[in-house]
Each structure stands twice: as C-alpha cells, then as structure tokens.
Amino acid sequence: MNTIFIVLPILTLLMFDLGLVLKPEDFRLIVSRPKPVPVGLFGQIVLMPLIAWRVNRNHAGGVQSADFQQRGDSYTRHHLRADDEPDSARVRRYNQTAEVMNPDLQHYIEQTILPQYDAFDGGHRRDHALTVIRESLKLARQYDADEQMAYAIAAYHDLGLRIDRERHHIHSGEILLADSTLRQWFTPEQLLTMRDAVEDHRASGKNPPRTIYGAIVAEADRQIDPVTVVHRTMAYSAKLYPDGDFPTLYQRSLEHLHEKYAEGGYLHLWLNSERNVRGLNELRDIIRNEQRLRSMCQEWYDKYKEQQV
Prior knowledge:
The protein is mostly helical. 71% of the residues lie in helices and 0% in strands.
C-alpha cells in the first residue's frame, strides 16, 4: 500500500485535533505578533518543498548513477565491442533499427534536423550526429529504452551550437522542447525527459544524468577514438587561434587533453561501454607519452598547413 494513504489520514486527524483546542485569544495574537505568520507560511510553502525537491534529486541522481554503472558493466561483459563490428554490419544494424522508426519522424529528422549540422565545426558535423544516433540506438536496445526517444535526443543533442558553444547543451534542450512538430510523436512528459537528457549529455557536466536517456546520449557522444580525439582537439585549437603556430596550438591542446581526459579529468563514462573504456585507457597512455602525443599533433598540423596553401 502507498504510504500516503496511511500518513495522510493521520496528519488530517492531528491537524483536526489541534484545531479543536484553538481559542479566540489565539487568533488575537496574530494582530499583536504578525511576523511569525508570514515567516511560517514561507517556510512551509516555499522552503520545505525546495529542500524536499533537492534531497530527492540528489538521492535519485546517486541511485541512477550506481544503476548506470552496474548495468554498464553488465553490457560490456556480455556484448561484442563496437570496434569488432565491420562497418557494413554497423550500417545494416542502423538501417534495421531505422525501419522500426515512425517514418514521418525519421523523415523530419533527416530532412530538417540533421542538415543543420552541416554548418558546424568539423567535430560536430552530420557524421558526428549520425554516429551518436547509431550508438544511442544500440544502447537503447540494450537498456530497454524507447528507441524513438533515444533517436530524437541524439539528433537534437548539439543543435545549440548554432547559438553558443559554452551553453549549447542548454540551448539544444530548449530547441527540442520548443519544436512543436515533435508533439505529433511524443507526449509532453516524454519531451521534458528528452530535454533533460539533451541537457545532461555534456562531458563537463558535474552531476550524473537524471535519466537513462541522458546516460545513453552522453555515452554515445563520447566516441573516444584516441587519434580522432587528438586531431579534433588540435582542430578546435586552430579555430581558437587561427594565426597560431604549432607550439601555440600544441600547448592549448595539451592543456585541454589533460583537463578533460587524463586521470582526474572532468569526463565521465556513465555506462562504461567497453568501446569507450578501452578508448579512454588508450588515450591516457598517449597523453602520458608526450613524445608520441607531440608526434600525433605534429602530423595533424602538417596536413593542416598543407590544406591552407
């Protein structure tokens, strides 16, 4: 039985009993001492609900994080690594999943949403969005999540880059929630969950994802291929410092790689998929080997300069 059906009648009886002993003199005290009344109402109506909400959120986040960790470990023990699967097989699996999608939703995403990625930087183009979609769908099947929700979340997760990079995860969630077309396929409650998931995908987020959908898109978005990560980091450094020489770009990239990917960095793997765990360990080995890292960065820089000629 739900505890509310036990607690609520008891509280009702207690309040009724208190009301029976009230006297007219008690009400006259409000005139002579009015301050405790608004203070008490504020604490009861505002502070207590806020405290309860915060406690519940922290508790739920911890429980979800532990649950994601356990389920993620189970996933990596019992499933093939993503990199063991040939490209052709990956394409077939994506197409098979796409066939069970609502065709109108899929058409809308492919014709209206994904083309917006073509205007973003090299690390966030359409191929990145498609990879996040593919990995999200695989994880959604593993965790018995709604595949259409995971599909849409992955498609919208970086759209906020068209507004601002620093808060793109927040803007992406706002864009998703404001898109009235999605209401054809998702309920208001689902859309709120999807917005939260998009907001929770960013690697620098300090709190664990609020739902399994946030963990799925966050894990899918990591894509920790060591060579790709190093080259994308150099590419973004070049975007920040278009006139920078190699030492400038390398130093900025080195600092970012240590801050994000090294031991104690801010990146989190909420589901610990084997693909990402293996990639992160390989990347950390590269970061510790400065000679190898510098060589990889130099290789990217040489090609970059050749393209500018």
